[in-house]
Specification:
The chain is mostly beta strands. The chain has five helices and 27 strands.
């Protein structure tokens, strides 16, 4: 279906490039000042990270005006993984390499950056040939300064192995610090351990249920993104170190939030991307959502946005990853609020009942390359009521609410054609 959808859109783009010959109703193409009718608008800056053939980025962390990455490099000749860090300044996109010598065969699972340096959760696990039994396992926290100089390490192996078996195994998934410098580690089995700076175990919690990550708020408190198995809702619940349990909830997260790293501000608000198009600011206490922008207005594929937050100077940061058969693209985007409207173009509507990332990428390429025209998506898909969305789509077309491009990748094509909707 994806290939068929892409062919439909590419045909539409070809039609556009020949001044709409055979397009939908010309009268529907309208000249707007901008796709986004009212301000504020945003000025965008894009930066693509440059990596070698066998390099990849993970463990993305924001600290101040810099974005830190752990860069892995697989050396095929020796079958070894080496790691280093990169720091990208978000003002001028200058890149600083931070050398770091990791212990051979360890994998970096997560990291957290503070003024005190970089804290890294790493592990080494060796399985037998059919992956039914662990032959060895080591779990460590590494600490280095912001220049990559090693400071100390904490061995977690005894603690982590005490709660697993050779047949099940466990891996560390999250690391963060609180305002006092205590270190929090979570694993894939909803276990949380808290250590002081010297590596002494302060508290451990076996969470009943499922969790997806640790979050440090603006005031230095640590919360766990916990899934309520009764109502199946994600809640940010405080880690109660003193009593060794989960404490009060800060609030529940909206459904289908795709922002993988949550940065919670002093007002207990967090940016969320709970659909592929829009960015919202969500209040954890009131559970109210404020629409901020539509990604497509700024030539951004919302499906590729993994991290989004507000910087100290008010800019919005978006970190994106996209994949194709040839490579993975890592992109940093900053959006600065402005009163200056977007560039005026003739808007062409693309009516669809659902879309996908390939279609969105094709639209973005067209919008970036066209000086005169811009495609605006009208998606009738309703995740809460499929039939209602489909009925609205059909009704709009059959009632003469024409679009310039129509997604006809399902069985209603002949029905639309019989009504004379195509030219």
């Amino acid at each position: 279906m994806k290939n068929k959808l892409l062919r439909i859109l590419l045909v539409g783009v070809l039609i556009l490039s020949t001044l709409f010959v055979g397009c939908g109703k010309d009268k529907n193409a309208k000249k707007n000042d901008t796709t986004q009718d009212e301000g504020p608008w945003h000025q965008t800056k894009y930066y693509e990270l440059q990596l070698g053939e066998n390099e990849y980025m993970n463990c993305v962390q924001l600290y101040g005006e810099d974005l830190y990455f752990c860069k892995g490099n697989w050396i095929e000749a020796t079958e070894e993984m080496t790691y280093s860090f990169e720091k990208v300044n978000l003002n001028d996109f200058s890149v600083t390499d931070i050398p770091f010598s990791a212990t051979e065969d360890f994998y970096v699972m997560d990291m957290y950056v503070t003024a005190d340096g970089i804290y890294i959760a790493a592990q080494l696990i060796e399985w037998n040939s059919d992956f039914t039994k662990m032959l060895q396992a080591q779990y460590q926290i590494w600490h280095c300064d912001l220049e990559g100089n090693a400071l100390e390490s904490i061995d977690l192996t005894e603690d982590m192995m005490a709660r697993t078996t050779e047949e099940i195994g466990t891996y560390t998934s999250d690391i963060t610090l609180d305002k006092d410098g205590n270190i929090y580690v979570a694993d894939n089995q909803s276990y949380i351990a808290v250590y002081d700076k010297e590596g002494n175990l302060l508290s451990n919690i076996d969470v009943e249920g499922w969790g997806s990550g640790l979050v440090t708020t603006a005031d230095g408190s640590v919360y766990y993104n916990y899934m309520d198995e009764v109502n199946w809702e994600e809640n940010l619940v405080k880690v109660d170190v003193e009593n060794g349990k989960l404490g009060d909830s800060l609030g529940k997260l909206p459904e289908n939030n795709y922002n993988t790293n949550l940065y919670i501000n002093e007002d207990n608000q967090v940016y969320v991307t709970n659909d592929s198009n829009g960015l919202q600011l969500y209040d954890l206490v009131s559970q109210e959502t404020t629409d901020i922008l539509n990604w497509l207005d700024y030539d951004i594929n919302g499906d590729n946005v993994y991290i989004v937050t507000e910087l100290e100077d008010g800019r919005i940061l978006a970190y994106c990853e996209s994949y194709d058969e040839e490579k993975t693209t890592y992109e940093i985007i900053t959006l600065t609020e402005t009163d200056e409207p977007l560039e005026a173009k003739t808007v062409l509507t693309y009516a669809t009942f659902g879309t996908d990332s390939q279609i969105t990428d094709a639209i973005i390429r067209f919008n970036k390359n066209s000086e005169d025209y811009r495609i605006e998506v009208v998606d009738y898909y309703d995740s809460e009521d499929y039939e209602a969305g489909l009925d609205a789509f059909n009704e709009a077309l059959l009632n003469g609410e024409y679009a310039d491009l129509i997604n006809v990748s399902w069985d209603n094509y002949n029905t639309y054609a019989s009504k004379g909707l195509y030219v």
